[in-house]
Amino acid sequence: MGGGYGGRLRDREIERLAEVARERLGAASGDGKRHVFISFANEDLNDVNMLRGQAKNQSSELEFDDLSLREPFDSKNVEYIKNGIRERIDRASVTVVFLSPESAKSKWVDWEVTESLSRGKGVVGVYKGDRQPDELPPAFQAGGCKAVRWTHEGLAKAIEDASRKR
């Protein structure tokens, strides 16, 4: 049987620990980085890895924590794969879609865009070259998502803008 005083002390200790946790989370999120999920077709992996590398470059304006998949889920169970991707999308503030002819045809990219939009995430597309691809993932196009040319400044601004629309 516990006394009344012990319960109040425990409540104060829990509240103190909660405050410490809030402070640490606030400090961690104050590093200027956005949490980004990158949606792409496997055929574009080399370009996406270059994008990831540029985001880690200290002198780049483009800076984000990449929450996208490094390796495909080792499963043929579609629901298991979708749940794993949903968890990553939920932790992100923005989904960046690497736009290419391959991503326009990818059912997974289209599903990831649909999931991101339905979960209230900002979605922005990025493309290489001077012109946006003619074909876009259907959900990207239907969602009225913005696309930008692959430049550090352009993508950094688009990520920031998309994260504020949430």
Short structural description:
Helices cover 52% and strands 14% of the residues. It has 2 domains: 1-30; 33-164, Rossmann fold. The protein has helices at residues 4-29, 45-56, 78-91, 101-105, 107-118, 138-142, 152-164, and strands at residues 34-39, 64-66, 94-98, 122-127, 146-149.
Task: Please provide a written account of the structure.
This protein has helices at 4-29, 45-56, 78-91, 101-105, 107-118, 138-142, 152-164, and strands at 34-39, 64-66, 94-98, 122-127, 146-149. The protein is of the alpha/beta class and 166 residues long. It has two domains: 1-30; 33-164, Rossmann fold (3-Layer(aba) Sandwich), CATH 3.40.50. The longest helix is centred in the first third of the chain and has 26 residues, at 4-29. It starts with a helix and ends with a helix.
Which architecture of the largest domain would the CATH scheme give at its second level?
3-Layer(aba) Sandwich
Instruction: Classify the helix fraction into a percent range.
Output: 40-55%
Quickly give the structural class: alpha/beta
Q: Remind me, CATH topology of the largest domain?
A: Rossmann fold
C-alpha-based Rg, rounded: 20 Å
Labels describing this entry:
166 residues; alpha/beta; globular; 2 domains; 5 strands; 7 helices; Rossmann fold
What topology does this entry show?
Blueprint: H1 4-29, E1 34-39, H2 45-56, E2 64-66, H3 78-91, E3 94-98, H4 101-105, H5 107-118, E4 122-127, H6 138-142, E5 146-149, H7 152-164
Parallel strand pairs: 1-2, 1-3, 3-4, 4-5
